[in-house]
Write a structure and sequence with these properties.
The protein has an 8-stranded parallel β-barrel, surrounded by 4 helices. The two termini are about 15 Å apart. It is globular. Helices cover about 40% and strands about 15% of the residues. The protein contains 12 helices and 12 strands. Helix 11 packs across helix 12. The chain is an alpha/beta fold and about 350 residues long. The chain has one domain: Divalent-metal-dependent TIM barrel enzymes (TIM Barrel, Alpha-Beta Barrel), CATH 3.20.20. The structure holds D-mannose. D-mannose (DNO) binds next to strand 4.
Length: about 350
C-alpha cells in the first residue's frame, strides 16, 4: 500500500510540505488545473507539479484526474480528436513518471451532494446527500444556488441544458459502447507508457437527474473490466461511492478485484447510509456504515500494492476551505489507514 494525498496544485492552501509531515506519506495525487477539459497538458505545467512534489520529498506518480471530454462520453464525431489529446497526455505523464491515472465516465456531473456543510452532533461539518432534496432540484431550471465542487462550472445554463438533452437521447448501452471505444484506444497507449488506468465509480452509484450512470456495482464493474481485459484497465475502488448503497458489498469487491490485480487506487472514506440518502462520516468504522478494517484487510490479504488516499474529510477544528478536502480530517483519515494497514499486516504474519 502506498499512502497518498490529494493536492490541488499551486493554488491549494495545503502545501506538499504539510502533506509530507503526515506519517507514512508516499505520493502526491494531483492534476494540471490550468487547461480546459479535453486539451493537451503542457510539459511545463506537468514539470512544475513534479518539481513542487519532488521538493517536498514525495513521489509524483498519481494523477487525479485526466478528465474525459463530454464528446467522448457522448460518442460525437469530434471524439477522436479528444481521445488523441487524452493519449498525448498519457504519453507526457508517463515520461514524467506517472504510474496511475484516475478518471471517471460520469455524464456531466461528477460527485453530487445536496449540502456541503451539514453540522453533525460533534460540531464538525460534512457533505450529505438527501434524496428528497435532489429530487427537488432541476439542474436546468432551478434558481437554487446548488453548485458543487465536482460540477463543471464552465457550463452556462444554456450549454448545460443542451448537453443534458443530448444524454437524455442516449441509453445506458450507448454509454457502454462509447466507454468501450474510448478504452480500446486509450488502454494500449497507457500500457505502452506503463500507466495503470483507474476508473472511479459513479458517485453516488445511481442515476441522477435522469442521466445514465454505469460504473455503479459489481455486475457493471465485471462488465467494465472485460471491455478491455488488460491489467492496465483497472479501477479506483472508492469505498464511499460504492458504499452509499447497501446493495454493494464493498469488502467482497475489495477482495475480489484486488485478487484480480485490477485495483490500482483506493479512496478510503466512510458513509452513514440513511433510509433516503447518506451522510459522510469520519473514517472510523463505528462512525459510519462501512467496516473499514475489513476493507483494508481484504485489500491486504489479496495482495493489493497500489495507491490509497484518505478521501473526503469533515471540516473540524474551525478549518475552512474546499469542502471535503481540508487538511485536518483527511490527515486523521491517513493516520487511521496506517493503523488499519499495520494491523492487517501484523495479523497476517
Ligand atoms: C471527489 C473525487 C472525484 C474524483 C473523480 C475522478 O472527491 O473522488 O471527483 O476525483 O470522479 O475522476
Amino acid at each position: 500500500m502506498k499512502l497518498s494525498f490529494r493536492w490541488y496544485g499551486p493554488d491549494d492552501a495545503i502545501t506538499p510540505q504539510m502533506i509530507r509531515q503526515i506519517p507514512g506519506m508516499h505520493s502526491i495525487v494531483t492534476a494540471v488545473y490550468d487547461v480546459p477539459v479535453g486539451e493537451v497538458w503542457s510539459r511545463e505545467s506537468i514539470a512544475a507539479l513534479k518539481k513542487q512534489t519532488d521538493d517536498a520529498g514525495l513521489a509524483f506518480d498519481v494523477i487525479e484526474s485526466v478528465p474525459v471530454h463530454e464528446d467522448i462520453k457522448l460518442g460525437k464525431p469530434t471524439r477522436d480528436h479528444y481521445i488523441e489529446n487524452y493519449c498525448e497526455n498519457l504519453r507526457r505523464l508517463g515520461e514524467a513518471g506517472i504510474r496511475c491515472v484516475c478518471y471517471n465516465f460520469m455524464p456531466v456531473f461528477d460527485w453530487t451532494r445536496t449540502q456541503l456543510d451539514h453540522v453533525r452532533d460533534d460540531g464538525s461539518t460534512c457533505l450529505v446527500y438527501y434524496k428528497d432534496q435532489v429530487d427537488a432540484v432541476d439542474p436546468l431550471k432551478s434558481d437554487s444556488d446548488l453548485t458543487l465542487p465536482g460540477w463543471d462550472a464552465s457550463y452556462t445554463r444554456e450549454q448545460l441544458s443542451a448537453v443534458v438533452a443530448e444524454y437524455n437521447a442516449m441509453t445506458e448501452e450507448d454509454l457502454w459502447n462509447n466507454l468501450q471505444y474510448f478504452l480500446e484506444k486509450v488502454i494500449p497507449v497507457a500500457a505502452s507508457c506503463n500507466i495503470n488506468m483507474a476508473i472511479h465509480e459513479d458517485d453516488p452509484c445511481w442515476s441522477i437527474f435522469g442521466l445514465p450512470r454505469i460504473i455503479t456495482d459489481e455486475k457493471n464493474l465485471d462488465r467494465f473490466l472485460h471491455l478491455v481485459d488488460d491489467p492496465h484497465n483497472g479501477i479506483t475502488l472508492c469505498t464511499g461511492s460504492l458504499g452509499c448503497s447497501c446493495k454493494n458489498d464493498v469488502v467482497h469487491m475489495a477482495a475480489k478485484y484486488a485478487a484480480m490485480g485490477r485495483i490500482h487506487f483506493v479512496h478510503m472514506r466512510n458513509v452513514k447510509i440513511l433510509p433516503d440518502g447518506f451522510e459522510e462520516s469520519g473514517h472510523l468504522s463505528s462512525d459510519g456504515s462501512l467496516d473499514m478494517y475489513a476493507i483494508a484487510k481484504a485489500l491486504h490479504d489479496n495482495g493489493f500494492d497500489g495507491y490509497v488516499r484518505p478521501d473526503h474529510g469533515r471540516m473540524i477544528w474551525g478549518e475552512t476551505g474546499r469542502p471535503g478536502y481540508g487538511l485536518y480530517d483527511r490527515a486523521l483519515g491517513a493516520a487511521y489507514i496506517n493503523g488499519l494497514w499495520e494491523a492487517a499486516e501484523k495479523e497476517a504474519q
